Amino acid sequence: MNKLLWLVLCFIALPATATALDGTQILQKVDRNLEPQSYESYRKLIDIQPDGRKKESVLYTMKKGRDKVVGLFLAPPSDKGRVTLRLGDNMWLFIPDVGRPIRITSLQSVTGSVFNNADILRIDYTAEYNVDAAEEQKDAYLLSLKAKTGEVAYDRLKMWVDKQALLPVTIEAYAASGLLLKTLRFKDIKDFGGGIKRPATLETDSPLYKGYKSVMLWSGLKKRDFPDEIFTLNYLPRIQELRK
After folding, report:
1. In this predicted structure, what is the pLDDT of residue 62?
2. How far, in whole angstroms, is CA 132 from its chain's centroid?
3. Dihedral through CA 182, CA 123, CA 186, CA 155, nearest 10?
4. What is the pLDDT of residue 188?
5. What Å distances lie between residue 193 and 174, 221, 237, CA to CA?
6. How distant, in Å, are the alpha carbons of 1, 29, 64, 163 from that of 26?
């Protein structure tokens, strides 16, 4: 090839390479903007039925690293003291009256909500998904995500990410068949302090549960370090002791 032509082609190719979207990097920033590496928070889950009736649950949540999450139920009275634990793809529910952890699955819901256990005990997106494609739109990046294993609740996600805040706006969750399972909408960006600024409201609905809607409200989100031992089955009866 003519040397001058080769140099011209290289010059033309450079800007495209420099500006190519790195979807994995965007997803990593989304994870950290949503949550610190180690934190505690309170969440209220509101499940709304087609007739307008509501059920509310309150959880105290602790997360460490990319894939360790514990949730302690504070309300309603019938669920108070129950504890959920997630380690990667594995999940358990501890019921004080039973006295031992019970295995649960990602697609079940301990609250009977449109939110399943994977939503309630969410780990980092980068722990569960690879980025198949990244597309730049007017005000958002559109990330197409594929589950790393068959244990993940959703086979594929379409995630619209706000360009400025690098926070999710909308997520569509799909089964392996291509069926839309649910839509998640992130709203009400709030400054929680300590450099944490993220949506305080998450709403979801599903074509599989027509007329039903679930809402998750965040409060008291702050950085806090935890020892690894609390994310174990043996520690679940003592989780209440960690609330300050």
Report:
1. 97
2. 18
3. -30
4. 98
5. 34, 8, 31
6. 38, 5, 21, 10
What's residue 99's pLDDT? 84
**pTM: predicted TM-score of the whole model, two decimal places:** 0.89
- Phi/psi for 122 (5° steps) reads -70, 135
Q: Structural domains in the chain?
A: 22-242 (2.50.20.10)
The per-residue pLDDT for 4 is 46
Tell me which residue of 142, 184, 133 sits closest to 160, measured CA to CA. Answer: 142
Residue 21's pLDDT is 81
Weakly modelled stretches of the chain, pLDDT under 70: 1-20, 244
Helix (H/G/I), strand (E/B), else coil: 102: strand
DSSP, collapsed to helix, strand or coil, labels residue 105 as coil
Q: How far lies 60's CA from each of 50, 70, 95, in Å?
A: 28, 8, 16
CA distance 54 to 17: 51
Q: What is the 3-state secondary structure (H, E, C) of 162-198?
A: ECCCCCEEEEEEECCCCCEEEEEEEEEEEEEECCEEE
What is the rounded average pLDDT for all residues in the chain?
91
CA distances from 242 to 71, 161, 238 (A): 12, 34, 8
- pLDDT attached to residue 166: 97
- Asked if 173 contacts 157 with a C-beta cutoff of 8 angstroms, the reply is yes
Strands 101-104 and 38-48, sheet pairing: unpaired
Q: What is the pLDDT of residue 2?
A: 54
